[in-house]
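Quick one, probably user error.
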């Protein structure tokens, strides 16, 4: 028997792809395409809600879904540590609740972040440069924030060298690591993490050329959602990368 799925943000570029993946998968049935014009209870009967809406709308959508007993996949940006902490409290108070938050559905991006976390143990000068299409409303990107947080975690409290970080042109400090955001026509998504050492620079780069890069990750998150309990953050955790 197939699992019913509702998609919030179904008319966006990522939302349309999520709908395609659901419709192509024999284990799932797309029962609702939700937009900003949809009522709060539309899609309430679905077993899984996939939220790829807007950073401002996302927390309310997710909280309502948890309250209805739906499993939730969040692909919307803007899920800061504070937001995650609040939703984790909501999950803890709701027996059986399960939420997967995925800053990036690209397998290559997830592997790039895992490699960056490994390299961060060995270099003290680290900076992140992320670029996206002009329509991306939030910055830094959720992927850049996730990458910076995992690198800081890997460093176990050792500070990164970030000279003149108080100057605006030096980027925003995320977990103590400078992050620079570009929004450019002609770009889908790109992230570089640069590590500086004595006499050398290591650069880990990931380019997304089309939204097709997200298809396999969306499928993996859907397949994990029904059994999800509690909060999982990152496709790497879903796939067991770096575990």
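Nope, works fine. Designed sequence:
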């Amino acid at each position: 028997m197939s699992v019913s799925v509702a998609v919030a943000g179904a008319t966006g570029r990522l939302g349309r792809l999520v709908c395609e993946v659901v419709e192509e998968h024999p284990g799932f049935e797309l029962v609702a395409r939700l937009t900003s014009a949809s009522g709060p209870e539309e899609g309430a009967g679905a077993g899984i809600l996939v939220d790829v809406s807007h950073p401002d709308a996302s927390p309310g959508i997710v909280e309502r879904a948890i309250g209805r007993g739906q499993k939730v996949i969040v692909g919307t940006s803007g899920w800061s540590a504070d937001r995650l902490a609040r939703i984790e409290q909501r999950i803890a108070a709701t027996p059986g609740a399960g939420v997967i938050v995925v800053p990036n559905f690209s397998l290559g991006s997830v592997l790039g972040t895992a490699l960056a976390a490994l390299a961060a143990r060995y270099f003290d000068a680290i900076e992140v440069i992320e670029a996206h299409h002009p329509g991306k409303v939030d910055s830094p990107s959720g992927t850049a924030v996730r990458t910076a947080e995992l690198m800081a975690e890997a460093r176990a409290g050792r500070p990164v060298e970030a000279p003149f970080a108080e100057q605006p042109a030096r980027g925003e400090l995320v977990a103590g690591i400078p992050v620079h955001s570009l929004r450019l026509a002609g770009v889908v998504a790109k992230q570089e993490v640069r590590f500086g050492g004595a006499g050398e620079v290591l650069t880990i780069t990931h380019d997304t050329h089309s939204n097709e890069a997200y298809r396999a990750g969306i499928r993996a998150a859907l397949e994990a959602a029904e059994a999800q309990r509690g909060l999982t953050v990152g496709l790497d955790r879903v796939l067991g990368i770096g575990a």
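Helices lie at 13-24, 58-67, 81-92, 107-119, 142-154, 215-225, 235-239.
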